[in-house]
User: Fold this.
Amino acid sequence: MTALAKVSGASFRLRRPGRAALLVGGILTAVLVGVALLSLVWTPEDPARMRILQKLKGPLVSGLLGTDHLGRDVASMLMRGAFNSLTTAFAAVGLGAVLGTLAGVAAAARAGFDAVLMRICDALFALPPILSAIMLGALLGPGALTAIVAIGVFMIPVFARVTRGAAMQIWARDYIMAARMAGKGTARITLEHVLPNIAGQVIVQVTIQLAMAILTEAGLSFLGLGLPPPAPTWGRMLAESQTYMLQAPHLALAPGLAIAAAVLGLNLLGDGLAARLDPRRRQAS
Amino acid sequence: MVLLTRSSRSRRRVLRDALLAGAVLAALALPGLAGGAEAAPRTDLVVGMPVEPPGLDPTSAAPTVIGQVVWQNVFQGLTRIDRDGKVQPQLAKSWTVSPDGLTYTFALQPGVKFHNGEPFTAETAKFALDAIRAPGSVNPQKALYAVIADVKAPDPQTLVLTLSKSSGNLLFWLGQPAAVMVEPKSRDGLKSNPVGTGPFRFASWRKGDRVELTRNPDYWDAARKVHLDKVTFRFIGDPQAAAAALRAGDVDAFPLLPAPELYAAFQKDKAFTAEPGLTEMKVVAGMNNAAKPFSDKRVRQALMMAVDRKLLIEGAYSGYGAAIGSHYTPNDPGYKDLTGVYPYDPKKAKALLAEAGYAKGLTFNFKSPQMAYATRTAEILQAMFSEVGVTMNIVPTEFPAKWVQEVMRDRAFDMTVIAHAEPMDIAIYANDPYYFGYKNPAFNDVVAKAAASTDEAARLKLYGEAQEILAEDVPALFLFVLPKLSVWRAKLTGFWKNEPVPSNDLTEVRWTE
Assistant:
């Protein structure tokens, strides 16, 4: 991202990939969100309904994407899985973004906070997220809340760092000085001047972290630490497809491609948004 | 190479072709050579297993995988269980039972030596049996041998057991992996260096990979000729890797293939023998009979009727395995097919639930261990119960540590599922306390009478009654018996098709060419 940011302003041509990214990323993400929302009101079949005698049917033989080892409709599971993935990811990133941003702006505003908060962040960064999530899962017991907390906690330092850096730049601006001279306190300046000015960067970060969260959620579900059945999740679909790889490759391909598309879409969207919302890049161009 | 660069192009080609042909011929001939010039059968064998045993002493720990490596191969007992589940003499060549069923006199095999050279005598047998019953003993099946009140060794070839009460199954229990004969000098090191009287000696154990056994040149039993010189047990947890190792020839046999969905391909392949048999592993969904809602027999019966066992087996185990209606397998003597007592009938199930006061439905938690058969069974039960208005929440629970703590020790559960591996263990429903929390004095009475009965016909009749009581009371949902999905090279013979005891007895295994 930073490397891209450095060169993107240098020539006019490099702005176009930003646009293409925004477009492709936007479409993929819109489809993802659309399918997720649609699954709440309509899926071709009940995703939990088993027709064991119809198991392991290929795509188009039974339903759009065939049936799994218990005769459930893969397309319906994939749709509801999108909703489950997205909600977990949103909740986790929401948790991380709110707490992380608060920590970040607080650190930028008070040097005393800064030293302590950033050392805590360093410590959190040192822990490998998936392993720590597995540990948390073992402690709290598997489930939606565990997945959200496990993923969210490790997003806090990411947001704290990004917002701290951005907020520090804002604090150095002249209009902050003006606001100070007008008698505004630290809290009010943070609220009225700092936060609005770093919102763009936070939004970009949210998009990129959503992709990370979807990937991590799939990983946790794969290991049996995500949402419990019957709620379909992409990770568990992938895990269950393992031993059927030769017999029914569509069982692994469907959730695998879905995860890849979702992560790609959100990453592209994030990159595209960065080109537009990140003030450093906006000013350079 | 030097020669080649000097020669002309065409000669080079000829030479290259000749070299290639030679290499191909050598490659073709090599397996034949390895098997011996006269095409003598191979004498080495690699057996694959999905789980590595934690130790190699079946008298000190419960996991059945221990016996699957060492029972009958390294260790032997006074009696043994054969491939049909029948009791055969082994280190005891014959025995007499007193009319009151309280005194067993065994005549022991003479001239038997342990792998470390120590002789097997009545004194050693007494030592082994006393060790099982000692106060600090950690023998996993200690309770089975508690009826033995006294062991005497009047002479080196005679062993006398005195029982506190008669026990019809004693000879069967003495043939189990937990009752194998061990001797004092090697006993403390058996976990890592097993020393027995069997046809194979322990050679080495590379942790995480393999256990190697070699033929015992001083094997006592001349009547059963052993054909293999070297046996390797390899531990391959991943089902895909297991299938690949079989195809590649890295493993010659996999007596318990962990993934049923991969089995059909081996059944079609002529290079392998793959005939599904049955194990002793009874998959039952145990309920907490001591607490609501499962303290009400009608709820348990209703849920039993909500389960379509045939469909469950199709989904959870690719259609392999046999449905059961009580805690007994078709392998066991005296088995009764009781799947018809509460057959699949969702309408009746709903009606019975309504009668029990759950007309509006019922919600409970299900602790599901992570094994594939268990998680699949859980998901299918969940779907089947939802058809009769019952909501079952699946709580994944790590097996063994967490599951044993929460279900077996704390009994903090509503329903769970597990495969009970021990043969003929119907008496566990009389244990108090036990995780089912099932209490039925009539059942306890029948089981106690059956255990004490030395008359075979009378005993089997009593065990039949015990099966019927359980089928009616449904303390656990009786689902199915896990199949023994064994695969071995078609040129091998002598493996067990069924598994009346969890084991891989290789005594009779050999290559036919």
Notes: Chain B has a mean pLDDT of 90. The interface with chain A takes residues 239-240, 259, 261-262, 265, 311, 314-315, 370, 372, 375-376, 378-380, 382-383, 386, 393-396, 398 of chain B (CB under 8 Å). The first strand of chain B starts at residue 44 and ends at 49. The radius of gyration of chain B is 26 Å.
